[in-house]
Amino acid sequence: MILVLRALGVGDLATGVPALRGLRRAFPGERLVLAAPAWLAPLAGLTGAVDEVLPCDGLDDELPRLRPAVAVNLHGRGPQSHDLLRATRPGRLLAFGDAPRWRPDEHEVARWCRMLRWYGVPCDEADLGLTRPASPRPGATIVHPGAKSGLRRWPPERFAALARALAEAGHDVVVTGSPQEEPLARRVAGEAGLPATAVLAGATRLRDLAGLVGHARLLVSGDTGIAHLATAYGTPSVVLFGPVPPRLWGPPPDRPQHVAVWRGHAAEPGDTASEVPHPALLAVTVGEVLAAARTIRGWRPSPCWPSTAAATGGG
C-alpha cells in the first residue's frame, strides 16, 4: 500500500494531481490510498490515480497503523504531518526535510513534483487533467463569489455587476458556492437581476460541480478551489488574486485560456483571518475583468459583449 497524506481542500487536491499520478506510475502494483476529507472522494476518483480515500479531516486526526510500504507527505513541511504518517508505521517515508528542502517561494504544483523526483519518482507538472463528468447545465458561465478567507473575496457588488454584464451579453450565468455561501450567491444573483434558478450554491455535489466547470463557457472566480478545476479541464477562466500571487497558486502561464488578474506586490502581508478583501483585490475593477476575458486566446465573446466603459458598478 502507498499512503498519501493531503488532508486539505479542492484546490489542494487538484494541484496535487501530477504528484499523485507520478506515484501511481511509480508503484503500479500497489494500492494507493489518499488520506483526505471524505467529501473529496468524488474528486479523488476523477484523478484516475487514487484507489481509496481514507477519511482524514486534518492534522488533528489520527490514522490507523496501516503499515504502508510507503507513506508520502503531500500535506506540508512537517513536523506534525510527518509525525501523523510515521504513526502508521510505514516502511518508508517520502517527505521534506534536510533533503529535499522545502522552498516557500515555489508554485504548489512544482513543489510536490520536485520532492518526489528527489526520491526517484518522475512527475509531470502539466499532468493536471481530470475525468470530465456530465454537466447539470452545459455551456453555462460560472460566477463564483466565495472563497475560504474574506481576504480572497472580491466584493459581492462587483461580482453582481459582472454577472449582470455577462447575462446582458447573452451568457447563461450561474452563481456557485458551498452551502454556507448560498446567502452570498443569492445576494449576487439578486443584485445582478438573475432568476432564482441561476443560484447553484449548495445545490451541486462535488462531482456535479466538476462537470459544470468541465463543460462551462467561462469561469470567473477568486483564488479558490473551483479555479483549479477550470485549469484541470482547460475551461476559459479569469481568476482574481489577492494576498497570494499567481506564481505560487495560479494557472500555468503557458495556457492562454486562463487569465490571472493580480494587482499586488511580490511580498504581500498574509492575514488569512481577515474578512476584508485584500487591497490587491479592491484594486481590480469590473471593466478590467471583462477586458481580461476578452484576451483569452481561442475564445470568442458574444457579439453583444459589453465594452469595459459600459461595465459600471464597482470601479
Folded structure, characterized:
- This protein is α/β, with parallel strands linked by helices and 315 residues long.
- Helix content is 31%, strand content 13%.
- It has 12 helices and 10 strands.
- The chain has helices at 10-15, 17-26, 41-45, 80-86, 108-118, 156-168, 182-192, 206-214, 225-233, 246-249, 279-282, 286-294, and strands at 2-5, 32-36, 52-55, 70-73, 93-94, 141-144, 173-175, 218-222, 237-241, 258-262.
- The strands form 2 sheets. It has a 5-stranded parallel beta sheet with strand order 3-2-1-4-5, with helices on both faces.
- The chain is elongated, with a radius of gyration of 20 Å.
- The chain starts with a strand and ends in a 21-residue tail after the last helix.
What can be said about this structure in brief?
The chain has 315 residues and is of the alpha/beta class. 31% of the residues lie in helices and 13% in strands.
